[in-house]
Design brief:
This protein is α+β, with helices and mostly antiparallel strands and 253 residues long. The chain has helices spanning 19-24, 48-54, 95-106, 111-122, 125-140, 168-174, 178-188, 198-206, 231-238, 243-248, and strands spanning 12-16, 31-35, 37-40, 45-46, 69-70, 76-77, 79-84, 87-93. It is built from ten helices and eight strands. The strands form three sheets. It has a four-stranded antiparallel sheet with strand order 4-3-7-8. Strands 1-2 form a two-stranded antiparallel sheet. Strands 5-6 form a two-stranded antiparallel ribbon.
């Protein structure tokens, strides 16, 4: 079996089983071993985490070979053979993940913001509310000197520097997540309450979502991506389910 060129250990990962998994395996062991292998085009192997820890853009951390190539569309990519618990994926482009991890190494304070964008794409209302709640608790614990200072990483209005400056609203629209769009308008816009369907307001109250004071805050609907598109313009371009949203004017600040 090949070994990781970074740490020299076998390309496997020991993970602890939860109680349900232990029961399914007869309760014989609290751990299991799964494959954990990334083979770069240069031929070097890494554990996934070892690669993330040592990665330097488009160069192999071990042999310094150029591991980038270009797709048929001319876009840069880093292809690898990836094997993990989910199986084997050949010629898998890991460059987007590597870029994001490199960015988060430099700006670790933005992890919550990037998680927020993922939740918007996935339509995970509960996860968004949990994250916002944790942010509010942290804000409540700020010192007197920190109070009133604008937070550059306002989660609700975060714009993705790696994704064309998209906001969570852009992401939700791109992924067809109407429930997330309603939630973001409720939390981060000045859209009047009478514009919200009663079931949306009731659902927000049930989930414990409270509408923050908008005075002095940027309405999320005015934020533009790198192509100068507000969420409304993006919805116009996509059409489909968003046509009624555009016609209603709900996405216009």
């Amino acid at each position: 079996m090949s070994q990781c060129t970074a740490c020299g250990k076998p390309l496997t990962l020991d993970i602890e089983l939860d109680e349900e998994d232990e029961d399914n395996q007869g309760g014989t062991s609290s751990e299991t071993v799964i494959p954990d292998s990334v083979q770069l085009q240069c031929g070097c192997y890494f554990h996934w985490q070892c690669l993330l820890d040592a990665y330097e853009m488009t160069q192999c951390p071990t042999c310094a070979s150029n591991i980038s190539s270009h797709s048929s569309l001319g876009e840069e990519q880093v292809l690898c053979n990836l094997e993990n618990e989910g199986g084997v994926q050949e010629a898998y482009d890991i460059l987007p993940i590597l870029k994001e991890e490199s960015y988060l190494k430099a700006f670790p304070e933005e992890r919550k913001c990037r998680a927020f964008l993922e939740f918007c794409a996935e339509g995970d209302v509960g996860a968004i509310l949990d994250l916002i709640s944790s942010e509010e608790e942290e804000d409540a614990g700020m010192s007197a000197d920190e109070e009133g200072v604008a937070n550059p990483n306002d989660v609700l209005r975060y714009q993705d520097p790696l994704g064309s400056l998209s906001t969570g609203l852009h992401v939700a629209i791109s992924n067809g997540r109407e429930d997330i769009v309603w939630l973001l308008l409720f939390l981060a816009s000045s859209l009047e309450l009478q514009c919200f369907p009663p079931d949306v307001i009731q659902a927000a109250e049930t989930l414990g979502a409270s509408r923050e004071q908008q005075t002095g805050k940027v309405d999320i609907r005015v934020l533009e991506d790198s192509e100068h598109r507000t969420a409304e313009i993006l919805a116009q371009q996509l059409g489909g389910v968003w046509e009624s949203w555009v016609h209603s004017g709900r996405l216009r600040a």
